[in-house]
Amino acid sequence: MTVRSPETGIDPGVSKLLATLPAIAAITRNRGVPFTISWAHRLAGVLLVVFVGFHIYTLSALTSPGAYAEKMRLYQLPVLLFIEWALSLPVVFHALNGGRLILYESFRCRSDDLLLNWVVGLTLLYAGILAVLMLMGNQSVSAVFFWLIALPAASAAAYGLYARIRHTSHAWGWKLQRITGAFLLVMVPAHFLFMHLNPQMAKDAALVALRMQNPWIKLVDAALVAAVLYHGGYGVISIINDTIGSKELRKVAAAAVIAAMSALAILGLKLIGSI
Fold first, then answer.
1. Residue 254 · residue 237 · CB < 8 Å
2. pLDDT higher than 60, residue 23
3. What mean pLDDT do residues 45-59 have?
């Protein structure tokens, strides 16, 4: 039988894992596991926004096949592939941990210790699967078929949460942040998985452009861009509100975040529409 920590109720294995990570060991010791998980979730959400910005930057080179091919050759360097894999861990953790928070907040699932253990375990399992796919690099999966499964599943998750929280007293900004979180719970892991199930499709400018011309794929890409930027922008503003004491500085910082997210959304949606 597993013995859980009396202070946190969390499996000792998860606590030990967090305590062995050099960057967060001191925080875990001083503030505890729940505090560490909360801030790990928030910071991982910021990385998700960075990923979208990086994707938009990369795809902007599609107008010049030679420049796009050069970027793809650069991204295939072993060190950059490792960085991509390593950064996928916090992003996927954010998606799965978001599912845990949704179950806790909106579905009254109070087995929080068990859910957290599942989040950590599934994140590590996903990282292992992704590493194998990146090393193999020779799969081929239909983009339309893949997203015909993933997008309806993500939409069903989002609608299920909407039906659950629409009559609650929370502000609609908060509700939309949770609904986009439910959507991204499926879409973010699916996106990483697809890009490495079908790696050749991402490397050839002509193939990428052909894929993005499909109306269904345009819908998928537009939904991802809109959901990530709203969800991430709301999360960054929440961090600002919790960490900046000055009301005036909070307003300036929040306005800067809104402007940045809006600019990225315009660039991303314009790019999707122009291909």
1. yes
2. no
3. 84
Question: What does the block give as tokens for 159?
Answer: 């609608």
Residue 16, H or E segment: helix 12-20
The architecture that CATH gives domain 12-274 is Up-down Bundle (1.20)
Contact 215, 259 (CB under 8 A): no
> Which of 106-115, 149-158, 180-189, 224-233 is least confident?
106-115
Q: CA dist 246 to 207, 208, 234, 250, 255, Å? A: 50, 46, 19, 6, 14
What angle is formed at CA 137 by the lines to CA 134 and CA 139, rounded to 5 degrees? 120
Residue 66 CB contacts under 8 Å (≥ 6 apart), including other chains: none
SS3 of residue 5 by DSSP? coil
Which tokens sit at 163? 């039906």
- Interior angle at CA 116, CA 169 and CA 243, nearest 5: 60
Tokens of 113: 């210790």
User: How many Å apart are CA 94 and CA 116, to the nearest integer?
Assistant: 12
pLDDT in tens, 149-200: 888 999 999 999 999 999 999 999 999 999 999 999 998 888 888 777 776 6
Among the listed residues 258, 260, 231, the one whose alpha carbon sits nearest the alpha carbon of residue 173 = 231
40 phi and psi angles, rounded to 5 deg:
-60, -40
Which SS3 state, helix, strand or coil, does residue 72 take?
A: helix
Residues 165 and 149: their CA atoms lie apart, in Å, by 25
Helix, strand, coil tally for the chain in percent (to 5): 85, 0, 15
Structure tokens at 120: 């950590």
